[in-house]
Amino acid sequence: MPEIAKITTQKKSKHRYNIFLKENEQEYYGFSVNEDILIEYYLRKGLFLTPEMIEQIQEKDESYKAYTLSVKYLSYRMRSEQELIDYLQRKEVDDTYIGEVISRLKQEGLVDDVAFSEALVRTKMQTSTKGPLMVKKELVEKGIQSPNIEQALSLYTFEKQFQKVEKWAKKKLQASSKK
């Protein structure tokens, strides 16, 4: 049964640690873990690890890496569930961890397709000249389901569309009078 010989910090990432194991007086690199996993499993020099425990720690670390990758991706702006899944697949995260991470992020309220689609519709209404059909197309491209799209597009009322067209028409009329 391998014993932890030493634990060192990684040069590039100070929150990750290399675990070196010793078996039959031979020391070798075992695996690396995040700081949180190191604390959670009370990993320390002299601790004996079973192969099952090593596998469990590595699985937990892979899941944690996928989670932190997702949180970092979400830190830039809101994302739909499908955008997040596509991103994790591009990063070659295992499908079992993707499902686990998505459900955890939903529980924490960090991934919510309804809130995302409503926020996108409000933003597009205020910052662009796109109508509801163009916004709907954009929502479909981002992987939002039809009921959520319809709910979000209900914010784009006829009155708001009319005001936008009226503003656009006035702008065009003023531009032509200058010519």
Fold and architecture overview:
60% of the residues lie in helices and 13% in strands. It has 8 helices and 3 strands; from the N terminus they run βββαααααααα. The chain has helices spanning 35-40, 51-74, 81-90, 95-107, 113-127, 132-141, 146-153, 158-178, and strands at 3-9, 16-23, 26-34. Strands 1-2-3 form a 3-stranded antiparallel sheet. Strand 1 (3-9) and strand 2 form a beta hairpin.
Q: In whole angstroms, how far apart are the ends?
A: 86 Å
Task: Count the E strands.
Answer: 3
Largest sheet, order of strands side by side? 1-2-3
The backbone outline, from C-alpha atoms, is elongated
Q: Can you tell me the residue ranges where pLDDT is under 50 for at least 5 consecutive residues? A: none
Helix content: 55-70%
Query: Largest sheet, described in full?
Result: 3 strands, antiparallel
Q: pLDDT average, as an integer?
A: 90
Overall SS class: alpha+beta
Strand content: 5-15%
Number of helices, where a helix is a run of at least 4 consecutive DSSP H or I residues: 8
Radius of gyration: 25 Å
H and E string: EEEHHHHHHHH
